[in-house]
Amino acid sequence: MQFANLTWHGNTPYSLDFNDIYFSTDDGPQETKHVFITQNQLKVRFSSLKNKQFTVIETGFGTGLNFYCTVADWLALAPLDTTLHYISIEKFPLNPEDMQRIANFWPQFALISNEFLPQYANLKPNSNNMSMADNRIQLALWAGDILEVLPQISQKADAWFLDGFAPAKNTDMWSKEVFEHIARLSTLDTTFATFTSAGAVRRGLQNVGFDVQKQAGFGKKREMLSGKFR
């Protein structure tokens, strides 16, 4: 397992592996809410949940910000007897010290980060199963290459967070093989959202069975993509 090679631009972590920032310099949590929470309609789906569990699959765990935001809404809105299954894949996980430094930026998520970070400190290659919030949150964090991890996953997603670095900088994350696995792990009610509006991503998702729409992006991003599996 290789930890991320990053540097700091002020309070912004910057990936030297992919020459890109981890989250918006405008407002990271608001970006997550705009792109992933809103476009997957998670608040409505959590508060009106019919099943006992809901599964999010994420391509790119990064700083954990998407996880924190999703868990906060789950704990506020989902019925008490339900479970959030959050499956995330990260080829180059941040080292525990950087993860702690980043978590300090967002004290609003301290309730969950205080449970998550001690477990993250024991991160190992491949699958890491973590439990939080009296077992209401089940995190399966995979430390490995996405094309090696996805074939090992069988649990269907209710929502996808497609959050690797930009397609031009991280081509493996946005390959035909990845899109085919995304389709395999989707049902007719599965939604997706992604910060990118790249034509190759739009066509790749359409080719495996997703309806894809362009939406207004966050901050400096003019457009993004979201949609539902057909």
Description of the molecule:
The chain has 230 residues and is an alpha/beta fold. It starts with 5 loop residues before the first strand and ends with a strand. It has a single domain (26-229), classed as Vaccinia Virus protein VP39 (Rossmann fold), CATH 3.40.50.150. It has an 8-stranded mixed sheet, sandwiched between helices. Strands 1-2-3 form a 3-stranded antiparallel sheet, with no helix packed on it. 31% of the residues lie in helices and 30% in strands. Strand 1 and strand 2 form a beta hairpin. The radius of gyration is 16 Å and the shape is globular. The protein has helices at residues 28-38, 42-47, 65-77, 96-103, 110-120, 146-149, 176-184, 199-207, and strands at residues 6-9, 12-15, 20-21, 53-59, 83-90, 126-132, 137-143, 157-162, 186-194, 210-216, 223-229. It has 8 helices and 11 strands.
- Provide the CATH topology: Rossmann fold
Number of H- or I-type helical stretches: 8
State the CATH architecture. 3-Layer(aba) Sandwich
Element-by-element helix/strand order: EEEHHEHEHHEEHEHEHEE
Structural class: alpha/beta
Approximately how much helix is present in the residues?
25-40%
Question: Averaged pLDDT, please?
Answer: 94
Indicate the CATH class.
Alpha Beta
Number of strands: 11
Strands ordered across the widest β-sheet: 6-7-5-4-8-9-11-10
Question: Which spans have pLDDT < 50 for at least 5 consecutive residues?
Answer: none
Shape: globular
The end-to-end span amounts to 36 Å
% residues in beta strands: 25-35%
Tally of structural domains: 1
Q: What is the CATH homology-level superfamily?
A: Vaccinia Virus protein VP39
Please describe the biggest sheet, giving its number of strands, its sense, and whether it closes into a barrel: 8 strands, mixed
* Estimated radius of gyration: 16 Å
